[in-house]
Amino acid sequence: MKKAFFLFFTAALLIAAASPGAQQPQARGQWSKEKAAQWYAREPWPVGSNYLPAYAENELDMWQAATFDTKEIDRELGWAQEIGMNTMRVFLHDLLWKQDSEGFKERIDTFLSICDRHKIKPVFVLFDSVWDPFPHLGPQPPPRPGVHNSRWLQSPGAEALSDKSQYPRLEAYVKGVVGAFGQDRRVLAWDVWNEPDNLNGSSYGKSEPPNKVQLVLALLPQAFAWARSVDPQQPLTSGIWHEDPAAPQKLSAMAKEQLSLSDITSFHNYDPPAKFEAEVKWLETYGRPIICTEYMARPLGSTFQNILPIAKQFKTGAINWGFVAGKSQTYLPWDSWQKPYVDRQPAVWFHDIFHSDGKPYRPAEVEFIRQITAH
């Protein structure tokens, strides 16, 4: 009798769930300001780098099974721990999910175990509109001699972005990755889309879809909705990167969308300290925790000594571009796309902290980071 009742009750529940009027669980919306503040209060001041191992020239080279190098990652993240860094911003790629979703999840889990061992909680980036719009799986071409970040890849590429029939694949990627790690205490946050309206005018601009901004503007809220549908415990964000704090009334449509969708506010700023501080003060008016997910370009006056004290004063997270000089060649300046550094070295490194053997580019700089993160 009990078994019959159980079967009847189960069947009734299934019928009710399938009914058109049945109440389905609702995906969460944007976090309240109070929830965001509570989350941030539990975390230490976030300080770290955008991380790509020295052996990799792009995201695919970092993560594909044939090139994923746990020993190198462990060694390099040990340097980060030694100077007090507690986060790393790390880019994923939709093609990795398409290639081997289970293997990709296993490698992410392995990476998180290494991070956890070094007391680092990464921010994972899901999509990216910057640099090469034609990503492909398999062996990656070697770096272009003397060129900054010469093999970095967009995700999704121009073809997938322009082809809505591929959007279910992108949806599966977001839900798959965030669903697998959305309750994982080892993950700090999800950066849904890096510089979504970047048209790469100094590099691949002529190869971009003519309606790229419109395509991304329509896809961005969908990407947030996909991530939210699996109810991650970590916040979602997308960083604004070219807005003028002195003219907030002129916010781009993309920035408005990013700010309205993000649980926490994030931004990029490679300016000298006065402009950095002005942007932080402006973003404080949104009433949410703030993380600068890209800064530090030495020749422009954006240095650790100039920026980190301001970030610490306002408890703004600070994630600089570049950790170790390797195949990304981001120690070279942006203008190397026009004038490759094939016969010379820059007077000052643009990004990056360590040589590939672990030697600091500037020992005093590393000591400064160690001291400011220790107190």
What would the keywords be for this entry?
alpha/beta, TIM Barrel, eight-stranded parallel β-sheet, globular
Describe it for me?
By secondary structure, this protein is of the alpha/beta class. The chain has a single domain (31-374), classed as Alpha-Beta Barrel (TIM Barrel). It is 40% helix and 10% strand. Helix 5 links the parallel strand 2 (87-91) and strand 3.
SSE map:
Elements: H1 2-18, H2 33-41, E1 47-50, H3 59-63, H4 70-82, E2 87-91, H5 94-117, E3 123-128, H6 158-162, H7 167-181, E4 189-194, H8 212-229, E5 236-237, H9 253-261, E6 265-268, H10 273-284, E7 290-294, H11 304-313, E8 317-321, H12 363-374
Strand fraction: 5-15%
Distance between the termini: 66 Å
Low-confidence stretches: 1-25
The CATH class is identified as Alpha Beta
The radius of gyration computed from the alpha-carbon positions, rounded to a whole number of angstroms, is 21 Å
CATH homologous superfamily heading: Glycosidases
CATH architecture: Alpha-Beta Barrel
Summarize the structure.
Helix 11 (304-313) packs parallel to helix 12.
